[in-house]
Write the structure tokens for this entry.
Amino acid sequence: MVKDTTTGLWHPRNDDGSRVEKLSGASNGTYNGEYWKVTTTDGTQYFFGWNHLPGWQSGNAETQSAWTVPVYGNNPGEPCNQATFAASSCTQGWRWNLDYVVDPHNNATVYYYQPETNSYAQNLTTTSPGTQYTRGGYLLRIEYGLNTGVGGLYAQPPARVTFDIAERCLPSGAVTL
């Protein structure tokens, strides 16, 4: 990715005319609610890390597509920079997964994720449970056949693919599920 400092837009290395925008204001747990939008030359839009899709209301599913980690802004001008290093931490995105695709006819596909979290002792503190971050995760389900103009993104999808996780080997001996 290459940033155009004049327009603020990002471009793929092999620029095919797609418009890449780094946006803010999403309810996704990242500093400034950062997320990405890619618009291809045919008008199809791809959203990464948005989390609350258009029409979202309390009780609706979240895509959980933005994965975060505490980051320190140790230099003036950096996000989260404060007078002391210990106070200069904020939660920033390290991965923005694809969560929503919509074509020019309002046909949409939605991707939901299951993040996996971990924690560590931030600033050498040992308070339980520690400072959490997203260590990884996996694709939980894909919902196809939605239309933003008819029924919206939280309607019952005509098609759904659900992914599951399991052990790679059959249990034997002392190994149990």
